[in-house]
């Protein structure tokens, strides 16, 4: 079940609120005496997050929970997607459980949200750190947004009381409000430079066509550039994947990609998804002050649509 992006949080007694954390969506199941973790795409997470899997061994038998794997950077004390993506040694991995789909062999999908939360609390009774329960936040939407900005959280989730769990579907019973400008984009190429590459060329799908939105130069160190370049080279193609290129001019902040600029580009099959932080969308549909945060191997490229107003 996925949340719908909104421009403002709903208010009133029909909603409950939680922190929106910037990490990997993860399902954890205990069945036949074994714990298995996997991503929203079905990729295995058990070996990658073995400490979390070990903690989930204390779940009741035949239980399936939903949550988010995050990394806390020890230097900043903040949730860091970059630290999660690159498995920094100074990062503290945690799993925040926020829902339960199966409890002791019984499906919970049709149960109201409040009852599922109670069963989740019971299921986590013997489960220790680094597995934690995402707890409801008791404050007004305005106060929650203010606190989320101060703590540099990804945003706030609002969930409709009494709502059911709808596997694999995006629902307006769950909505998300982002306080940080951060979004997934498809990598469709890179520009040449002194290093293995100078910038990533990214875009998003609109009406089944990939639209260019930015060149991303920031967010890399030399090691990361070399590591990422090894992946990019495997996807090279002669064909530009962006339907809106070339652009007629570079626009303000030098974000456009003209025909002359394209001579210095290398194109890729649009398979990779990147998390990109940015200051704002420009009026002409580009990103201002964009920075690479990491690859999203839990998302498919075709899932990445435009969101210039959210």
Protein traits:
310 residues, alpha+beta, D-amino Acid Aminotransferase, Chain A, domain 1, OB fold (Dihydrolipoamide Acetyltransferase, E2P), seven-stranded antiparallel beta sheet, 6 helices, 15% helix
Describe the structure.
A hairpin with a 7-residue loop joins strand 11 and strand 12 (199-206). This protein has two domains: 2-178, DNA ligase/mRNA capping enzyme (D-amino Acid Aminotransferase, Chain A, domain 1); 181-303, Nucleic acid-binding proteins (OB fold (Dihydrolipoamide Acetyltransferase, E2P), Beta Barrel), CATH 2.40.50.140. With 310 residues, it is α+β, with helices and mostly antiparallel strands. Helix content is 15%, strand content 37%. The model has no long low-confidence stretch (mean pLDDT 91). It contains six helices and 19 strands.
